[in-house]
Amino acid sequence: MNSQTPAVLEVKKLGKNFGNVQALVGVDLEIYDSEIHAILGQNGAGKSTLVKLITGLYPTNSATGEIYLNGKKVQLKSVSDARKKGLAYVPQEIEIVDNLTVAENIFAGQISSLGRVFSLARIFNLAEELNKKYSFGLPVRAIAAGLSTAQRQTVMIARALASNPSVLLLDEPTTSLSKDDAATLAQNLINLKKNKVTMIYITHRIPEVLALCDRATVLRDGKVALKLEKSELSPEKIITAMIGHSIENKNQVSKSQSVYNVLLELKRVSVPSVNPQQVALHDVNFELRDGEILGLAGLVGSGRSEILSAIAGRSPFSGILKVGNKEISNPSPKKMRELGIVILTEDRKREGLLFNLNLVRNVIAGSTEKFTKFGLVKVRQEFREASKSMDTLAVKTRSYLAEPAHLSGGNQQKVLLARALTSSPKILLLDEPTKGVDVGARQEIYQIIRRIKESGTGIIVVSSDLDELLLLSDRVVVVANGTTADQFARGEGDEARVLRFGTGLLQ
Question: How far apart are CA 101 and CA 104, in angstroms?
Fold first, then answer.
């Protein structure tokens, strides 16, 4: 891009801290008129923080640096303030009201901007004008409940464009779309560009960047790692910038053999999405052996957590799922727990810990039947076994009768691991087991996971930290777009291999 061309949006030396953590460090970014500009980076690279500052979710005065829009310095105080100034945002989550018409959904939350006199007829007319201008092909008078996922995403884009913004930000717009729907969206974006809409395209899918984008900025560790013009865009340059070192071609799929017993086997497992935010799974294939740590690698929206949910009996599936030699039909969380499958979810505060109960009650929550006889609770045995588990995991607390709110994040996570141990699991599913814990606690949790493995338990770990996953795992299965794209044994793959398959470059 010609350096003499004025930028529509310019970010200068943008920085943002959360306590001692630097989420962004001196980020410079220029977005030019009528371009599609990709922003890429691994999980935790700083993409979300940058977007939240540009869209006003984090006010400008909470950060260092400056933001310029159409050559003028702006202070963004809120999302509505950013929208008024010309920065429109299409979030990853699709937010549609099913019982309203498409036109009403497009103008949801913007009725006040239409003036004091408005009617449903006027909303229909304005929606038709948008439809015609951008060639969306939306049924503006239809009820939104009947829309496809691609149409729902298009409604979100139309809603953002209704305010005639200077810059449109799209956050992982194809995460919940099928291949055909993603192609439809791509054509819509090409039409928007022809209509001189300026776009920022946040994604982890490199093929989409190569096909759609004019330039790209790669973030790593909160900093700009690389800026690329259209002619410079290549998978190798992008991946090298994302991981911080050069890459080698390691594309072959490993077929590691093991003499260990197979605890869990998935063949052609598919799970339909029940809402636009859920990733649909299709043709998932892998096995877990006893005494093995299996890592599920993939970027946000790949379907990793959905796989754990299916194994735990939370989602109905088609295909074959075997626990040991037993093929499972009509799964339920209770049935899977009885088969020895225990899951620790990513959100320990909402789905894990019981904050109104003490630590002992939290630890034995998954195995209360062990401590009940003839309807009577063996309170002393509960305390003895729960405290033993917490001692083993070195939970730091003033009292085992304290509540979880008094513990650090690392110790809260250890309480959940103690609960899992008390259940004597055959298969342990860990979703982001070190999320929100400090470095010291992280190392302790690694040791605990390895100790559980040594007992013969099979463990599946989902982690957004690739270094962590490669460090812990005996084998790694790469998940992309709701399916298993690759797998390899320890030492046979690296970050580059994960990103090649995880970003959709290789299938």
Answer: 5
